[in-house]
Each structure stands twice: as structure tokens, then as C-alpha cells.
Amino acid sequence: MRLRYNFRLYPTPGQRQALARAFGCARTVFNDGLRMRQDAREQGMPYISDGDLSKRVITQAKTMLERSWLGEVSAVVLQQALADLNSAYRNFFASVTGMRKGPKVAAPRFRSRKDHRQAIRFTKNARFAITPGGMLRLPKIGDVSVVWSRSLPSEPSSVTVIKDAAGRYFASFVVEVTDEPSPEATAEIGIDLGLAHFAVLSDGRKVDNPRLLRRAERRLRKAQKSLSRKEKGSANRRKARGVVARAHARVTDARRDWAHKLSTQIIRDNQAVYVENLSVSGLGRTRLAKSVHDAGWSQFVSMLEYKAKRYGRTFARIDRWFPSSKLCSACGALADKMPLNVRAWECACGASHDRDVNAAINILAAGRAERLNACGGTVRPDPALARPDEAGTRSKLPAFSAA
User: Are 325 and 338 in contact, with CB atoms under 8 Å apart?
Assistant: First the structure.
């Protein structure tokens, strides 16, 4: 399994200028390649191959006066920028032809120098290295100071240097990690995600929603108002934009940290984890969009999935159309409707249910059933006695008498 390990970088002023130069060169190569392919399409010419495009926008461009400064940065950075363009085109073509699953992918777009997030990638060919003193040595940039919060499990195959909107620098290493099966646990859990409670577990536990964005709204509102009053293009507006970006970065970091801790605890304590396959993009278009995005369900579920795979746990998503809230977990009866304002209900069998706990129990049962079915087990429930009030039909077969 491949994972990314991110660490904070603290480049010197000179190294920041070198990184800015590398960001600009990579952006220029990407845009030149995109423009060349668009012009070829408009003129009815054949699609320019990857190798031919590399010769034109990198090798030949370095010999031209208006692009001679491309030689001031590592050639690997330029090649990787062009590789990103080629990958974007392949994803676009696969999406148009139906070979790629999921949402449609748009055609590549030009990169802007005004983008607040910039990134460049170094592969092994660039001969980046970690010095004995713990510095990150990057070609034509120098030895950059790194804050190592943990050690790398293996030698990285590439490193991406990122500058985010808040002006922070990060090094993202791609490393190969081996599976580390944890001691087998006996518990299995079903999780119902929501807004009133972030997660309700099938054992009855409820995890409160941290609402990190809502709690930071006052600070964000104040910073955004200050930004809106600044003159466009001024130094004060640039400073105010940084204040807003740093406020959002604190919320993002806190949400990621919280999701990591909760997902690690759940994976450590349970052998199997089942969640509902929610349509977050659809819910993000409703009046609850702000709360849905603040919850960060997709990020949390993705963490559960890769951690389950790494530590030898079972993870599965339940069909989003499964009626987990309307189904009685005691007798299996299905209610006609279940409005969102109904938080507790009673079934005709006499069972009283908390809406979310009942949904989590049903998600756990559905996940176990699918798992048994995949293993060739029996998924049909055992026969049960009919209730006295259950409707039925009388047999209309004729009575036969012994002859």
C-alpha cells in the first residue's frame, strides 16, 4: 500500500524565491503544453503525443530566448508538470468514453499564477535526498529545514513540495508501507453518520459533532469583513487574505486531526466496520450544505477504509438506498415513512427505537449479511412465527375425501 506522509517545511527567504521560480516554470510548461494541444485540435491536426510535446515545450523551449529561464530549475519538475497534463487528458478521455467510473471529468484547464496553492513534484530521477542532519535536499533549491513529526517507514519514491493558501510549505512523501495486522478483535460495528451526532454506533454510543467550522464562524466573519474592505491589489489586501486563509487552515487541520483520532479508535476496537454509502455531493446541494461539508463525512470514511485495509480489518459500505431508518431491527417490519423530525418511534411488535441507533443496528446487520453472502454463507433470515395480528389468506383448495 502506498501512503503519503506530510511534513512542515521552513525554507529560507532565498529558498522561497527558488521555489517560487520552480512553481512558475512548472505552471508555464503545463500551460504551454495545453495551449499547443488546443491549437492543434482547432486546426484539425492530430493529437500531439506525449514525447513530441515534451520535446516542444521543454527541450526546444529552453533554446528560445523567451523560455531560456526554464533551465534554471530541475528538469524533473518540468517533466512532472507535463506528466500531470497527460494524466489529466487521459482521465478526460476515459470519462468521455465511459471507461472511467464516477462523476464526469472535465477537460484540463490553464493554471493561474494567482492560484493560492502551488505544487511541484520531485521523483527519484531528481536525486532528492534526506541529509544525515535531517534536511531535505532538493536540486537547485538547497537543503530545506523539515519538522519530522515521525519517521518514514521506507524510502520515499517521490516528494511533492506544496505551498498552501496560508503561505505554509509542506513536503508530501510517497512511501510504500506494509500491512500491519492488529490483534483480532471480537466486536463488529455499524455506523450511522448524521448531523445532530456525527456518528451513532450500533452499540448505542453517540459521537458528538464537533462543528469546527461553526465554532470558528465569528473569527472567520471578522477576517472576511476586514478583507472585503481592503483595496484590490494592495499590500493590505494581500495581508488580509492571508489572515482569512490561516483561519480556514486551522479549521481544516483540526477537522483532519479529529477524524484521524476517531477513525483510529474505531479500527483498533472492531474487527469489522460497516457504514452507509452516503451521497455527500448530493447532500452538499441542499439547504444543509454548510453543515454537511463541515462534518467531513467523506474524509472520515476514507480514513476508515485505508486503515481497515492496512490493519487487517473488514470494511464495507452499505447501499445508500437501504432503508436503515425505517426498518425495525427487532422484527424486520418496514415503516411506510419516517420524516426527519421523528427521532424515536415504536414498532407494531412493541419495540421502541431511537432512530439513529436503530439505523446503525440495521447497517451492522446488512453488512454482516453481505459479508456472509460473499463468503458463500446463508443470508436469508431464519423462519419466525407470524404475529397474531398479521394478515393472511385462507386456502381455497377443495377438500378431498378418502375414496
Answer: yes
pLDDT at position 348: 87
Choosing from 192, 208, 253, 390, which is the catalytic residue?
Answer: 192
Task: Tell me the pLDDT tens digit for each residue of 121-143.
Answer: 999 999 999 999 999 999 999 99
Task: Say which amino acid occupies 327.
Answer: L
At 396, the amino acid letter reads: K
Q: How far apart are CA 296 and CA 300, in angstroms?
A: 6
Residue 381: band (very low, low, confident or very high) from pLDDT cuts 50, 70, 90? very low
| Residue 186 contacts residue 192 (beta carbons within 8 Å) | no
The active-site residue out of 84, 276, 294, 305 is 276
Q: Residue 56: which region, alpha, beta or left (left: phi > 0; alpha: psi -120 to 50)?
A: alpha
> pTM value?
0.86
Asked about 276 being catalytic, the answer comes back as yes
What is the percent of the chain where pLDDT is above 90?
78
CB < 8 Å & 24+ apart, contacts of 256-263: 256/299, 258/210, 258/212, 259/296, 259/299, 259/300, 259/303, 260/303, 262/199, 262/207, 262/300, 263/300, 263/303, 263/304, 263/307
Cell numbers standing for residue 133 = 542532519
Asked if pLDDT for residue 6 goes beyond 50, the answer is: yes
Neighbours of 23 (CB within 10 A): 23
Q: Flag whether pLDDT at 294 surpasses 70.
A: yes
Contact 209, 197 (CB under 8 A): yes
> Is a pLDDT exceeding 90 seen at residue 394?
no
pLDDT in tens, 78-103: 999 999 999 999 999 999 999 998 88
Residue 222 confidence (pLDDT): 96
CB 214 within 8 A of CB 294: yes
| 272-276 vs 188-193, strand pairing mode | parallel
Given a cut of 80, whether residue 387 has pLDDT beyond it is no
CA distances to 39, 48, 350 from 57, in Å: 14, 12, 73
Catalytic residue among 356, 382, 389, 390: 356
d(C-alpha 54, C-alpha 60), whole Å: 9
For residue 283, which of 267, 296, 264, 271 has the smallest C-alpha distance? 296
> 13: burial class by Cβ within 10 Å (0-12, 13-18, 19+)?
exposed
